[in-house]
Amino acid sequence: MNLLNVLLVIVCALSITWLVPISPSLALSSKELQALWKAAVTKHQQSDFEGAIKLYLRISKEQPLLTQAYTNAAALLIHEGNEEQAIVLLQEALKHNPTDYMANLNLAIILSESADHSILDHALKCAKQATISRPSSQAAFHVLGNIYQSQGIPHLAESALRTATNIKIETRSVLLPRVFPEKNSGLVKFAEEITSNKSGIGKRRSPSKEDSPPKSVVTRQKDYHIVSIHPLIVHIPSFFSEKEADAIVDTARHSILKKSETYANNARGVLRSSETAWIRGEHSTSALRRLLPFLRYFGRNGTLDETGVSVEPLQAVHYSVGGFYHAHHDSTPWHPRDVTALYYLSEINGGKTIFPNICELSRQTEEMCLFRSVEELDRIDVDQVCNDIEPPALVHKGDAILFFNTLPDGEPDPHSAHVACPVTQGEKWLANHWITGI
Prior knowledge:
Mean pLDDT: 76
Shape: globular
Largest sheet: 12 strands, antiparallel
Strand content: 5-15%
Distance between the termini: 26 Å
């Protein structure tokens, strides 16, 4: 089992309920507070995050014990890039209810990004409380395992992650902050035009490699290429210009790059060596806007701005010489991820991305090409795995690779396991989005 690094997923507690338990207030009546809550949730659903934050904060002043208002506001502040204020709100929620599950979990996730040991200790305390408040939470045990890993306690990390794996998958009833454009935006209308009568409502496309792209999709990009059917992998050349790629790298360099090392079980050594940073704001949003037509064309949902679709912030990844990430899945039992969008922000020397379980990319004969689990692949030297497999596409700076991690029924696709091969010269910069609900 791979020990995954911390995933910054702010779990926003919109269940969604219009009626909430409200105690008497001196300023507003119960009926007025119910109306205020409904207005806040509506603005949140409509992606009016600034308006929603204001209403949540007003509710929290009126009803401090309604900690869900603090948590929702904090989630949106994270989306807006204001982590400091989000931490203040989560701490305020815990002041009123120290055992609040959502506040403890979200605060643990944010603080676990730090390399400061005292802050990690605080994150650990919050994660432990989250597991006590909700013993059935896979997310809480997974975050707990990641924090133990960051503290260099692999046996406790493995125990917590094993517990997360064994827990029944939680109902996916939360709504993460959405960053897609509004329903009436020109981009969504544009996407609706190119997908009408083509993608099929409620099911994922099953294209062939000869499938010709809709012309409207390629007005910005030169073209796209379907390089694999199972799993579906799409190569999009020139997704970013060199200037755009450099701007994202420059932002990442000035962010807090956290060392990411994933350790194998059974003393098999390090499975990952890289640095990561979360990037929010215009870089993340503009990339998603550009990606939207492709997601609409290849996705299985009729609309992308409906409840249930969630996007994690843009993650920048830096590999130095020798940096790599052995075989892994992007989708986990506790946190399914339907689609990965991988953006190449530099030219690469070595460092190719390969999919070992796609036989058509293997240098071995079809008879010798065997399906291997991630655990089996990780027992093989990463250089040997990389020498045996061709990348699905020859990528260059500015290109993007879009691939599906789950099957049409939502189950993880074992063929989507992939490897970031060791960098042999210079450095490698990537960024990625993970999208769920497609």
